[in-house]
Amino acid sequence: MLPEKMKGETAWLADLVYVNGRFEKDLALVCDRRGRIVRLAREVDGVASVIDLRGRAILPGLVNAHSHAFQRALRARTEGRRRARETFWTWRDAMYALASRLEPEDVYDVSRMAFLEMALSGITTVGEFHYLHNAPDGETYAERGLLAKEVVRAALAVGLRICLLDALYMRAGFNVELDRRQRRFITSDPSDYFLRVETLRKELDEGPDGRVRIGLAPHSLRAVPLGALREAARFGSQGGYPFHMHVAEQLAEVEACLREYGRTPVRLLAEEGFLDERFTAVHAIHVDHEEIGLLGRARVCACPTTERNLGDGVVPADALCASGARIALGTDSHAQVDLLEDARELELNLRLKNGARAILAPPAETDEAAFGSLAARLFEMATVNGAQSLGLNAGKLASGSAADFFTVDLQDAALAGADAHSLLSHIIFAGGRSAVRDVVIGGRRIVEDGRHGAQDVIIERFIALQRKLWSGA
Predict the structure, then answer these.
(1) Tell me, what DSSP letter sits at residue 402?
(2) What is the pTM of this model?
(3) Strands 326-329 and 299-302, sheet pairing
(4) In whole angstroms, what is the distance from residue 315 CA to residue 66 CA?
(5) CB 336 within 8 A of CB 318
(6) Separation CA 246–CA 455 (nearest Å)
(7) CA quadruple 101, 107, 112, 114: dihedral sign
(8) For a tag on the chain, would you pick the N or C end, based on fewer CB atoms within 10 A?
(9) CA neighbours within 13 Å on the CB side: how many for 262?
């Protein structure tokens, strides 16, 4: 008879397991019935269940720290030039038009599609920066936080962990008239916002070890006046909430902040004391040397695929790393959902800009130490750093952590020929989503052999939604 503690244990046995920055052979990941890792073991004798993943490697689940799930419905529909110059701001017009047409069930369907793609690409946790709150006419729904709950429902239906970053959005900008399509975003009174957040936390939040976490997300300095931002910071500090905010994504945003406050966004946030370990600055592209130093006190979430797609610019990740800032990664608008692509773009964009290679590689004293260190740093951004940004216990494989992981097929064409020493570099710099075969969250396999159990239904519903949205476009 098995010891009581081993009756509910499951061992996942693969060729390689990524732990402590390297791939280990002949190591099994053992989790309990609660979906927690209890040990990494060489022997699995006595374990109740053994799942054979030979021919594959196990890696910690990816953490997507910045998502706007509803924008998945806009993918590839703005890739043309209808004006003399297409910019972030012209793309935003199309996004506003989309946002004004979505019903609650539509929000569920598009979110579920975005989250399915995340799962299929190895993402196990998402930080959803949610600012779609009201009915299309701006009226509040009878159920407080209805659309936020639809997004959370979609994540749980797919099987992902989610940190719902509820956004405060109060205005179009300083002395800027509100676009009627922005009415869905607006919460004019901070006290109403705090009540919504508290309601969501009471009804949904399971803490840093659970499937759902609630965080704060003042949208930006253009959308939230400074007085309200101070209130939000106090509320967030008292409640221990993760605190995310769009910062310096566009030059026009920086210039508007200078006109209103006489300070750039980063300087204002630093002088107000907001830049601490709970604060994540999303984008942080248009920043100078002094501001980069100030951001070293906080976290930054880069979204290279979206930033490239929208023409935002290149995140100065090399200088940010040198300043001590911890960089996480996000898929943002979902022009493409592939966090490994975002990781390599962070580096490759800097190569184009600087005319050099291995820009983000940490210093190493030997060639042996140097090889693989760049891939390890980028992978840390896609896992541990993202989890810490969201205040979650995730992103690593260790005793006591959630059993959240994905596998890659060692026979995948893009990875063929890799050994244990070079595999992570192959995954980061050459791998594709096709290599991802299994995704396990809380000890439960939600993707098996590259497919999700609800994949066909989710895609069918999303196709129907797209027809409804775009049949007359």
Answers:
(1) B
(2) 0.97
(3) parallel
(4) 15
(5) no
(6) 32
(7) positive
(8) N
(9) 1
**What is the bridge-based pairing of β-strands 243-247 and 123-130?**
unpaired
Query: Which residues 6+ apart lie within 8 Å of 39 measured at CB?
Result: 30, 399
Q: Where are the beta strands (DSSP E) in 134-184?
A: 161-168
The Cα–Cα gap between 256 and 393 comes to 37
State the catalytic residues. 283, 332
Provide the sign of the torsion angle of the four alpha carbons 45, 49, 51, 57, taken in this order: negative
Q: Is 11 helix (H, G, I), strand (E, B) or coil?
A: strand
Cβ burial, residue 416 (10 Å; 0-12/13-18/19+): exposed
End-to-end, the C-alpha distance of the chain in Å comes to 65
Predicted confidence pLDDT, tens digits, the chain (473 residues): 445 555 689 999 999 999 999 999 999 999 999 999 999 999 888 898 999 999 999 999 999 999 999 999 999 999 999 888 999 999 999 999 999 999 999 999 999 999 999 999 999 999 999 999 999 999 999 999 999 999 999 999 999 999 999 999 999 998 899 999 999 999 999 999 999 999 999 999 887 778 999 999 999 999 999 999 999 999 999 999 999 999 999 999 999 999 999 999 999 999 999 999 999 999 999 999 999 999 999 999 999 999 999 999 999 999 999 999 999 999 999 999 999 999 999 999 999 999 999 999 998 766 766 778 999 999 999 999 999 999 998 999 999 999 999 999 999 999 999 999 999 999 999 998 899 999 999 999 999 999 999 999 999 999 999 999 998 65
Tokens of 126: 């998402």
Note the Cα 384 to chain centre separation in Å: 12
Instruction: Please report, for residues 118, 147, 335, 379, 462, the alpha-carbon distance to residue 67 in angstroms, rounded to integers and kept in the order given.
Output: 10, 15, 11, 18, 18
| Token pair 């951001």: residue | 295
Give buried/exposed letters for 85-113 (b at 16+ CB in 10 A, else e).
eeebeebeeebeebbbebeeebbbbbbbb
Q: Which residues contact 437 (CB under 8 A, 6 or more apart)?
A: 56, 406, 407, 408, 409, 447, 448, 449, 450
Token readout for 263 is: 């300070």
- The pair of three-digit structure tokens given for residue 338, joined into one six-digit string: 């592939």
**Of the candidates 189, 246, 178, which has an alpha carbon nearest to the alpha carbon of residue 218?**
246
One-character DSSP codes across 105-118: HHHHHHHHHHHHHH
- Whether the Cβ atoms of residue 169 and residue 179 lie closer than 8 Å to each other: no
- Between CA 111 and CA 130 the distance in angstroms is 11
The answer to whether 223 and 137 have CB atoms below 8 angstroms apart is: no
| Bridge pairing between strands 436-441 and 62-67 | unpaired
DSSP H or E segment with residue 444:
strand 444-448
